[in-house]
Design goal:
The protein is mostly beta strands. The strands form three sheets. A five-stranded antiparallel sheet has the order 3-2-8-9-11, with no helix packed on it. Strands 1-4-7-10 form a four-stranded antiparallel sheet. It is globular, with a radius of gyration of 15 Å. The relative contact order is 0.22. Strand 2 and strand 3 form a beta hairpin. The protein is 6% helix and 38% strand. It has one domain. It has one helix and eleven strands.
């Protein structure tokens, strides 16, 4: 039931478009649940982290994308390097910007059917 609710809570009204590019260069921009719908998810433009020197939480400008696993045609696995495009700001029509992520072990998201991607800015060659 929790996984089915992700259609509203994760891919609903506040979702943003996401484009994934696998290590072979294949592009995924539509939902596996509905090939006519764009791939969307939660995009946070930063995250809180614990600073062990001060004992306080700090804000890090590192985007984090959370996607519903059942919406993915191909699910990233640990150790793979993927490309991802997200909007430059929280808007469905904002220009998309390139990031990279290396898949790291999940944080228990499999229990409710999500994958969390921690992005790094892609450097232009």
């Amino acid at each position: 039931m929790a996984e089915a609710d992700l259609a509203e809570t994760l891919e609903g009204e506040w979702a943003l478009p996401v484009v994934l590019i696998d290590p072979e260069g294949n592009r995924y921009d539509t939902s596996a649940n509905d090939p006519l719908a764009p791939l969307t998810g939660q995009v946070l433009y930063g995250k809180r982290a614990f600073n062990p020197d001060t004992g306080e939480d700090i804000f890090i400008n590192t985007p984090v994308v959370t996607l519903r696993i059942s919406s993915l045609t191909r699910v990233p696995v640990d150790g793979e390097r993927w490309g991802v495009k997200i909007p430059t700001r929280p808007s469905m029509t904002a220009p998309m910007v390139d990031f990279l992520f290396t898949v790291r072990p999940s944080e228990g998201g499999a229990s409710i059917g999500v994958v969390r991607l921690y992005l790094q800015r892609a450097a232009q060659a």
